[in-house]
Amino acid sequence: MPLGVPVAMSADSQYAVDFLVKSSSGLLFGLASKFEWRQFALTGPTLTIVDTSVGKIMHTFNAADVTLRRKAPDSVVYALESRSRPSSRPLEVSSPSVSRVQKFQAALLAAAAASPPTADADLLTSLLGVAMDIVESHAAVPPSESVATSRVSVEQIQLHLAEMQSMYDLQSSCSNMEELYVHLLDLEAAYCHDPTVDSFCHTVHKLHPVQYAQHTQKRAGPTPILNHPIKSLFAKCPHANCSYTFHMTTAYNLHIKGDSMVCALCHRPVNRQVFKLASFIRQTPSFVMPCVLRNQPVTLVLDMPPMPPDGKLSSYMDEVRQRMRQLAPQGSRAGIQALTLQVRAALQSFFSPSNQLDLVQAMLRQLDFVNKVCPNLSYWATPLVLNAAIIRYHKFMHLVRVKGVTLVPTTDIDLVWHTHQSYNPHEYGKFCRQHMNGNVVDHNDMIGGGDLQVAYADTFILWSQVFNEPYSSHAPAYAAYKEGKAASNNPMYSKEATWRKHSRVPSHDCRFVGVNEAFPLHAVLPFATAVLPDPAAKQVVPHDVRVAVIGTPVMDGRVRLPYSHQNFLMGDGGLAAFVYFDMGGIMNCGCDFSVADSQTMDELKKQMAALEVSAQTEEIKLRALEAEAPRSEKFYITTAIHYTNGQPHMGHAYENVTSDVIARYHRTYGRDVFFLTGTDEHGQKIAQTAEAQGVTPIALCDKYSGIFQKLAKDLNMSNDHFIRTTSKQHIDFAQFIFGKAEANGDIYKGTYEGWYNVREETFVTENEAQLIDYKDPTTGTPLKKMQESSYFFRMSKYQERLIAHYHANPTFLQPETHRQSILKRLEEPLLDLSASRTTFRHGVPLPNDPDHVMYVWFDALSNYLSGIDGINYPNGALSKYWPASVHVIGKDITWFHCVIWPCILMSAGFPLPTRVFAHGFVNARDGTKMSKSIGNVVDPYDMIHKYGVDSFRYFLVRGAKYGSDMPFSEDEFFNIHNAELNDTLGNLVHRGLTLSVKYAHGHVPDVPAIPCFDVLALKTATEEVC
C-alpha cells in the first residue's frame, strides 16, 4: 500500500465504521494485550474486520451469526460473538460512544435480513451525530487528569458568535472594500481613544494575548498601536516637513496592499516601512542613560536622528551609529554599553514582526474566519456542537503544552480558542500560567501555507498518538509530514511506521461529516444562514457547497461561499491570499493577508546573496575566535544556602539541579568552573527550633546540614565546595567583612524600635507592617513589636551608587520583572540596616562587641566569599573566582541579594557579582503553593525513588521556562518520563546499540567531532556598537 493514501472503505461496502479491538501478541515473559483500531465493513451479508494500517483482513463473519453484547452495564467494552463458532473466543470491542454502537447494530440487523442499506439521515442530524459521538466518548472515558479544563462555556461562545454575525452583516452593507476599510479604521480609532470600548477591534486585540497583555500593562503610556490611530498614520506623508495628504484609496493601497509610491509633494519614497520608521522616530526622540565616569555621575543623552531622505532603515541606523560614536567619549564604557543595549532593544522590539500588531489588518484576517463560520451559524450555535468543540479545545491545548511545536487547530477548536482569549483575557492568562508551563500561548494567524501543511500533519499525527483517535477526516499530506521530519535523526522507516499507524482517517460511517465534502445547496439551506448571491461575483451560485464543521482545518478556504458579497469584497480589495483547493492540492494561505514589502525577486536574491556572504564572514570570525578563546575562563556559580531548621523540599531540589546543569554546561565549554552550595546555620529560628526539640543549635544544624549534603550527593550534583556558616572559615570572614564596613565608617550603634518578622528574621517598617496587616504574608503569624540596641549598617549611603549600577548593568538582575521591581522600591529612600541582634546568642559575635551577634543576612550573604577564601582576596588560591558569574536564588529573596549584599560589597571594597538570577517557585499542579496543611507537598526523594534521579533532574530542568513558576504535576512527569526518555531517548540508544552490534562488532565507531565552544559568547564579541 503506498504511503500517503489513507485507507477508506471498499467501493462495494454498504457500511463501514471503526472500533477498537483487543489484540494479543507474545512479548517478553507473557502476553501483552492492547486495543487496536479496526474497520468493521458490511458488504451484503458479510462482516469484514480489517487492519487498515496494513490493508489486512483480520476476521470475516456472516452478519446473521454475529451478536454484540455489552460486557458490563457501565462498560465501554462489548463482546462480539459468532453463533456458528460457539467455541471461538469472542472479540472484545471497545466503543465509548453508545450512538456508534447502536447504529452499527442496526446495520448488522439490516445486513442479516438482506435489507437495503438504511437511507442517510438528513444532513443536520448527521452533522450533529459527530458532536454526539465526541460528547458521549468524553463522558464514558474522560481524558487523563493532565488534560486541563478551562472555564469557557457554551454561552460565552454563543455571545462571540453573535459578534461575528454582526461583522458578517456589516460586510453585507458595504458596497466596496474601501467602504469596509473606513469602518475598520473607525473601529480602531475608537479603540485607541478608549481601550475599554466593547468592539470587534477590542475583541481582535484580545486574540493576540501576549501583545494585549503588554498593552494593558502599559495603559498609562500606550504603545504606538494604541497611541495613534492608523487612519492618522496613513493619512499624510510620513516624511518630515511634508504636509501632503493621501486619498483614502491611496492610503488603502499603501497600508493593506503594501504598495510603494513617490510622494507628489516632497518626491520621496513612501511605503509601509517608511511609515513604521516614522512612527518609531515620533515615539522615541531620545534615550537617556546615567553612568559614572571617573567617580563622577554623568547622564548620557542620545538624540535620535530624523527620517533619512530615502526612508530606509539602513540609512537611519548608519546615522544612529555615527551619533553613538560621537557620544562615546562623554561616558564610561559600562554606560555606553548599557545605552547601546537600550537602543538595540528598543529597535528590535519595535521592528519585530511579532510586536508590530496592526489591528486593522488583524481585523481583516479575522473577517476571513467570520466568513467561513457565519454561513453555518445555526449549526455552530447548537449547544451539543459547542460542548464537543470545548472538549476538543482542551485536548488541543494539552498537545500544545506537552509537545511545544506549532499546531494547527480545526475550525471548532479555533472558535473556542477565540472565545477563551476574548471573553476573559485574565482567565485565559491564568489558565495558561497554571496549565501551559507558565507561558501564555499566543495565537498566530499569519503562518504561511506550506508551514501550515507541515504543522497540520504534525497535529494530525500527534493527536492520534496522544489520544488514540482521529483528529479529522481531512487527511494530512505525507509530503508535508516528511518535510516536517526532515531534520530528525530517526531512520526513515520509523517515520513510515508512525505514518502508517497514525495517519488513519475515520471510516465513512464514523467520519467527521462535512469535512472534505460538498452538499447540494438545497440540503444545506434548511439550517444554514441564507446568503444572497452577489451580482458582481465572478462565480455563479453552484449546485454543491461546502460549510465549516467540526474537524474542518482552519486553512480550508473551500468553505467560503464563492458567490457571496463578503467573498466578493475580499477579492475586490485585492486580498488574494486565500486558501483554495483543487486537484493539485493547496494554493496560498488564508491565514495571512499581509502582502510582502514591494521588493522584486531580483532584489530579494541580492539580499539573500549578501546575507550568505555575511554569514560566511561571520563563520570565519567565529572560527578565529574559537582558536583564540582562552580555555581557562573563570565561571563561578552559587546557589542560595539552605536554612537548617527543616527537611529539604522541591524548591531546594529545583535550585540545586538547575544550578548544577548550568555549571556542567560551562564546564563543557572548557571554562574553569567553581560551583558553591551550602547551609545557613545561624539565626533566631534555628535557636527556637533547637529549644523546642530539646537539642543544642549546633546539633540541630549538624543534623540538617548532613541531610542537605546527602541530597546534593543523591541529586548527582557536581558542586566543588559545601559551605557551612558555622565553620571557622566562614565566621572569620563574616567578622572580617563586618570590620571592613566599620573601618569605612558605615557601622554605628543605635536603638531599633519596630516590627520584627521572625520567619524572615528581618525588621519591617510601620508602612510595610500596615500593608501586610501586621502579619507574616506567607504564614499569617503576627509580627513582633521589638525594641533593642543594635549596630546599624549605613546602607542609605549607597543608594544612588546602587541605582547607577542597575542602569549601567541592565542584566545584573534577571528576569527583567524582578529588576524593575527592585528599581521601583529604590525610588523610596533606602533605610539603614539593623545589622546586629541581642535577643539570642546563636550567631556570629561582632568583633567590636561580643554582646551582639551579627544579623543573619549580613552573616549568610558573606558565604559567597568565605567559600572561596575571600579573606585573602584577590590573592587567595580560590578567591580568583570572584566576582561571581551568577548567584542563583529564589525570587522571594531578591531584596537581600540585590540590595543588601551589593551595599555590603561596596562598603567593604569588593566588586559586585556579574549577575543574580531569580528563579520561580515549584508549586502544586494547580499553581497554588505547596503546603503541609493542604497535603500537596511533594518529597523530592519520593520522585527519585519512583523514577530515578536522571529522570527527576530532566523533568525539573524541562518542566518550566527558567525564571517562571513551575506547577509540579506527577502525571506530567510520568508522561515525559515515558515519552521522552523511555521512548524517544531509549529508542535512540537501543537502535544505536543494535547497529553497533550489527555493523561494528559491538563497538561504537570513532567519529571525528568538532570541539565544543560557546557560539553565543563568541558571536556577542563580534557585534558592533549597534
From TrEMBL:
Its EC number is 6.1.1.10. Keywords: Aminoacyl-tRNA synthetase, ATP-binding, Coiled coil, Ligase, Nucleotide-binding, Protein biosynthesis. The keyword Cell membrane does not apply. Gene3D superfamilies: 2.170.220.10, HUPs (3.40.50.620), Isoleucyl-tRNA Synthetase, Domain 1 (1.10.730.10). It is an enzyme of class 6 (ligase). Residues 601-628 form a coiled coil. Residues 636-768, 771-991 form the Methionyl/Leucyl tRNA synthetase domain. It comes from the Eukaryota. GO terms for biological process: methionyl-tRNA aminoacylation. GO terms for molecular function: ATP binding; methionine-tRNA ligase activity. PANTHER family: METHIONINE--TRNA LIGASE, METHIONYL-TRNA SYNTHETASE. NCBIfam families: metG (TIGR00398). Belongs to the class-I aminoacyl-tRNA synthetase family. This is methionine--tRNA ligase. It comes from Aphanomyces astaci.
